[in-house]
TrEMBL record:
Protein name: YxcD family protein
Origin: domain of life: Bacteria
Pfam families linked: DUF2653
InterPro entries according to UniProt: Uncharacterised_YxcD
Amino acid sequence: MRIYTDEIINAICLHMAERRGVKPSDVEVQLSWEEQYGFTAEVWVSGRSQYIIESNILEAIEQYMYKEYNRRVFRSSIKLDADEEFWAEIED
């Protein structure tokens, strides 16, 4: 299964909203990939910015897959990739 940029962003929004006790609509996310740091995301919650690293993104996807698709996946079975857009390949 593969999920794309919008769903990855939704996963991070839902995850950060739950952790911060705010509504998902109060969270903004910008994904990025850099040679030095790998996959990261800048997250704005209530006007405050924070960067999260790949392991945090994978945690958000893991939780999203369970809540939205009722599928228990582990971080080790999620692979992030990007070209013109971001996607996560999730092994069955």
